């Protein structure tokens, strides 16, 4: 329809229209939304409002979910304001608990474009240029990781999906080689109960979750012990492989973690790649967190060995500062994507391949898929590789100095005294504390959170409760950390005085 005059329709106020002023209604909605964001910022005092879960749930339950007759956006935004004020303020500098980053501004601008343009990356005729940009970016990441020219990949919803894909392709390619068995067509082979996956005991829980979803069961995952730095122990890997073979089991995949979720530890990737080769295992590297070292100036060398992986998980909504969701799955030999490709007549008929129309659905476990590549593109170009590297290096430096400071104070136990990425796992253990260290630190965590002051994470190490900083925000400085440590000490002392009298 290329007519110059657009007759009005009953629904014109609800969509972006062709032609001059066709975006007016959209821009008005955006202006109102901008005002909401600024009103919320003006009222934000900390990373969390501090209200009880019951109060928050009640506020949400009171909201009308749908209206018979539509209401003005401004009215609905009043409820959204309530939601945001009771949410987590991820841009706040004291929001340092989880692998949950403040998003970069150019990526937020990209989100506007992504949603308004609404490209779908499954078929060429739903995305055309976007298909090529995603492909170019994938090629760029593969080359940055040194994967070589047979490599390929796809954007994913995050690390969970990428880990699942790695193990799916590993399983299917093993069954193909071992028994000439096509899992895609025939399901699991009779021997499937002998299949085993190896990862360290600090690997992400999605390795087990994937195994269960892949029909292998969680028990198919063999956990290798870790050394004192929470990295996979090569000695125990050797031992576990020996036992598996003696038991007539079939290890087919080895998962290395580049940046464990709690400690940011990096497994000995190069030696693991060697072990994988010797034992004909698929080597998958879960670099959801540590993959960002590919942009670091100081620490990129610690990725050594990743270039030997058969597949890699990278997450951009962690240390690449992208809004959720944004991740990638990378594959050393693109032919393995054949295990998940499926031709649908309506979407990606085979003859299109011959015409050079590429359909990214062939490489994805999703069908309809967002143009998340755009936000990484806009971020890399606007921020530049130099400052990207500076940001990552800064966060690692702050974590190292923080860990050192806490150790020197002798008031804290720090598990990873020399953090490999930017997580610090610790607990406050002042001399006056004789017992109940778990309860005491839990209390500190809870009062900081519910006082709306600091959002820390809790974790368990060797059966005991610890607290964790995940220092993803590059705006956080050592001055902030010194003040925060002093605040924790003060709060701990107050709790002690209040509840004191060790039992
Ligand atoms: C976060 C994380 C995952 C899961 O990724 P999502 O993006 O949350 O799905 C997997 N592995 C590691 C090491 C992670 O840190």
From TrEMBL:
Annotated Gene3D superfamilies: Aspartate Aminotransferase, domain 1, PLP-dependent transferases, Type I PLP-dependent aspartate aminotransferase-like (Major domain)
GO molecular function: transaminase activity
Domain of life: Bacteria
Co-factor requirement: pyridoxal 5'-phosphate
Keywords, in A-Z order: Aminotransferase, Decarboxylase, Lyase, Pyridoxal phosphate, Transferase
Keyword Membrane tagged: no
Entry similarity comment: Belongs to the group II decarboxylase family.
This protein's name: Aspartate aminotransferase family protein
Source organism: Fictibacillus fluitans
